[in-house]
Amino acid sequence: MSDPTTPTDAVAGTTRRHFIRGVAAAGASTVAAASLFEAPGVSDLLGDSVARAAGAPTPFADFRAVAASSADAFEVPEGYRAHVVIKYGDSFANTDGTQLRFGYNNDFLAFFPLEGKPDEGLLFVNHEYPAPFFQHGVTRGADKSVAQLELEQYSVGNSVLHVKKDAAGLWQIVSPSPYNRRITGKDPECEHTGPLADETNHPRVGTSSKGSLANCSGGITPWGTALSCEENFQDYGSDPATSAYGWNRLDPEYDSALWSKYGWVVETDPYDASWTPRKHTALGRFRHENTAFRALDGKRFVLYMGDDVTNAGVYKFVSTRPFIPGRRAHNLRILEEGTLYIASFDHSRREFAVDGDTTPITPTSGVGYWREVLVTELEDTNVRIRRAVEAEEAGAWNRHFATNRPEDVEVDVDGTVYIAFTNNSGVKDRHGSIRKLVEAGNDPTAVGRANEFRWVDYAGGGDRGEDKPAGERGFSSCDNLVFDREGNLWVVTDISSGSLAGTPGAARWYRYHLNNAVFMIPRSGPNAGIAFRFANMPAESEGTGPYFTPDERTLFVNVQHPGEETASRGVYGDVSTYTSYWPAGNKTTGQNPSTPLPSLVAVTKLPPNAPPEERRPNVIPPPPPAPEGRRPQPEPGRDGAKPRLRVADVPRRRAQAQLLRGGLPLELTVDEPVRATLVLSAKLPTLVGRGRRARRKQKLVVLGRATKSLKAGRTELAVKLSPAGKLRVRALRGKDVTATLTIEARDAAGNRSSVKRNVKLV
Ligand code: FEO
Ligand code: CA
Ligand code: CA
Question: Where along the chain is composition biased (Basic and acidic residues) (predicted)?
């Protein structure tokens, strides 16, 4: 397809920030490869686990952090607008007449600009795995009809969506469009490239495969293509009597015990809907999570990748061909030939003494090198390397190669590689961490024992403590990462839905975190290193693929697997048993019971002068509107009923120093929206009367007060001391005293409930 907006090469325009980023990173290392560690601000990269100076926060990153939430809602701070761009099953079309439907469990996404069109572009999205329960209700491979198997087969792969901002500033799908496309689990026939693309010597791999599946995250290239990563390929062709998929009933090639057709990195040109996707065997076959590149003009191209398996490794590919800006046909062959390497760390896993701990018992920095992966190890990369390194030295895999499960890998503008190690229960790492890796001489092509890289754990997950503000308690189980143009690091979390607070398997170390979320970590300034909570995900979902538009006014986020635990607890067809109603409804408030649907959300930063009506919704779904001219009505069925109020986690004893710093934390659960008033008071000796008649008497003194509008569900909050309350507590000088916390909740109809708790201040 030819179109004037199709780039001849990705470095063509300044709007294409992410392509420019790769080249800029390369530029730094070409010019200053040897001296980079001496450059100001860079020498402490490895000495300081907090942050280095970068730019000021961007307008997008200037927000008031939201508190953790367990509500079945997508929530962003005030001043941002969130809306669903497309959801599972929605139709769109190509101009050639092909009717298309958006797939299930959208994961990776990337925005490809169209030159000269600032408010228009292409979204490349992939669809990781189907959900048989929600799609048709049959959850055993052997029991499905062919039509049910084909519905699942169609729902994975990739979508290319032409999107454009409308007059109201909302991103909409342009349909029909010559760009719109679906790649499914069956179509088109993908072409294999590289050393194993051969029917004679590698018949299990062969030269082609039907479509693409298990697409988790991905990446982009500087020549304007998308890379989609096939992750859990082993799930689709196992025994249909015991597996949820059983696709080998459709075709034996899905069976990974017999064939090696899936588990590759797949390259697609989003600008050409007729392009044949290419699976690159030179990049190895493992549970590919994503890719991140470093491209130097005229030099060999480097692609970093993670193997998303507990105790698996981090890889990089170094191409044989150089990257030559402007020569797209040449660059499109870069991933066909080169050498793959696996990272060997002096100590690869971050280990803890106790589950949920935040201070590791193993080193938090060290060195390592890149070990070559042989062509004979490419087909089943993890298994074969493991066998080889263990044959050389018993225990070598776990000491040097096994990691705490690499999810995203991203490259900063200075060439530093950031790796999200999500968690690893085997070494009691429940919260994960982000590790930085700096190549020897900052040369991305550096390999072998003589060229050691250096690594340091940059940010660890886990609870920072109840004395911290509600939006700053910390992340857990980091997954995808993205930098904004000022260098702030955005992190999404992926606590497995079965361990999240509110599910039967809830783990106590994730309680503080509640639902999965999006965080922003400034890397400079007074807040450097602190994770600020930006968005809350709906019940049992994870946010994936965060991606900014070039102008950074919009952040796109995929909401994957809302209500995932329903499959083990719900009754198909009875939506009241589903654990999420998102995005059309909200299970927590009982609003609009409906089937949960994975969806792509756009979050837009509004200008400060945006009129109030445009400032909403910052929550999906928006609460039902109050009838005009009348005061808000109580929810149906709640008339006359008092709000049910449950208080948890009020400490029985609170150190006065802690109270002064962080106030009194607690957790409130209400069954309907309320206005809550919380008052902390104590009887304290107080001077009553004047002059000679002044006497000390025990008098009730208010130490702190908070008033908050709460949605139905659980909320964590803290009652902070007032300035006068602080003076009174300081005057106690460690003398024990009992304070009383009174909580009153009032619903929209005016019904009230209240509870009291005593707290010993010591
Ligand atoms: Fe699909 Fe690697 O998470
Ligand atoms: Ca992921
Ligand atoms: Ca994940």
Answer: 628-648
pLDDT recorded at residue 12: 25
pLDDT given for residue 36 in this prediction:
23
Q: Is the CB of 443 under 6 A from ligand 1?
A: no
Check whether 28 has a pLDDT greater than 80: no
Decide: 466 and 665 in contact? Cβ < 8 Å: yes
pLDDT grade for 48, boundaries at 50, 70 and 90:
very low
Lowest-pLDDT range of 3-12, 109-118, 515-524, 527-536: 3-12
Is ligand 1 within 6 A of the CB of residue 307?
no
User: For residue 629, which phi and psi values (nearest 5 degrees)?
Assistant: 75, 0
Q: 742 by DSSP, 3-state: which?
A: strand
Residue 615: the pLDDT is 67
Q: List the domain boundaries for the chain.
A: 1-31+94-283, 47-88+473-622, 325-460, 645-761
pLDDT at 338: 98
Atom nearest to 407 CA in ligand 1: 2
Q: Indicate if the pLDDT at residue 625 is higher than 80.
A: no
The DSSP code sequence of 394-453 is TTHIIIII--S-EEEEEE-TTS-EEEEE--BGGGTB-S-EEEEEE-GGG-TT--STTS-E
pLDDT at position 18 over 50: no
Three-state DSSP state, 89 = coil
Mean pLDDT of the chain: 89
Cα–Cα nearest to 10, from 1, 272, 21: 21
CA of 216 to the centre of ligand 3 (A): 8
Please tell me if the CB atom of residue 230 comes closer than 6 angstroms to any atom of ligand 1. no
Residue 727 structure tokens:
């003076």
Task: Give the ligand with the smallest distance to the CA of 231.
Answer: 1
Look up residue 528 and give its two tokens: 């450097």
CA-CA distance, 603 to 543, in Å (whole number)? 12
Whose CA is closest to atom 3 on ligand 1?
216
Spatial separation of the C-alpha atoms in residues 168 and 41, rounded to whole Å: 43
The number of the ligand nearest the C-alpha atom of 312 reads 1
The pLDDT of 456-477, averaged and rounded, is 96
Q: Is residue 15 predicted with pLDDT exceeding 50?
A: no
* Of 330, 359, 365, nearest in space to 347 by CA: 365
pLDDT-derived band at 41, boundaries 50, 70, 90: very low
Q: Phi first, then psi: what are they for 630, rounded to 5°?
A: -125, 155
Omega before residue 562 within 30° of 0, cis: no
Residue 629 — pLDDT band, cuts 50, 70, 90?
A: low
CA gap 121, 138 in Å, rounded: 38
User: How many angstroms separate the alpha carbon of residue 494 from the centre of ligand 3?
Assistant: 6
Ligand 1 contact, 466 CB (< 6 A) = no
Ligand nearest to the CA of 480: 2
Ligand 3 (ion): which residues have CB within 5 A? 479, 494
DSSP 9: S
**Given a cut of 80, is residue 236 above it in pLDDT?**
yes
C-alpha–C-alpha distance, residues 676 and 690, integer Å: 37
Q: How far is the CA of 443 from the centre of ligand 3 (A)?
A: 30
Cβ of 253 less than 6 Å from ligand 1 = no
CA of 408 to the centre of ligand 1 (A): 9
Please give the distance, rounded to the nearest whole angstrom, from the Cα atom of residue 560 to the centre of ligand 3: 10
In degrees and rounded to multiples of 5, residue 724 shows phi and psi of: -70, -40
C-beta neighbour count of 454 within 10 angstroms:
17
Instruction: Please report which confidence band the pLDDT of residue 26 belongs to, taking 50, 70 and 90 as the band edges.
Output: very low
User: What DSSP designation does 612 have?
Assistant: G
From the list 158, 148, 223, the residue with the least C-alpha distance to 188 is 158
Q: What is the CATH number of domain 645-761?
A: 2.60.40.2550
Q: Whose CA is nearest to atom 1 of ligand 1?
A: 216
How far is CA 582 from its chain centroid? 18
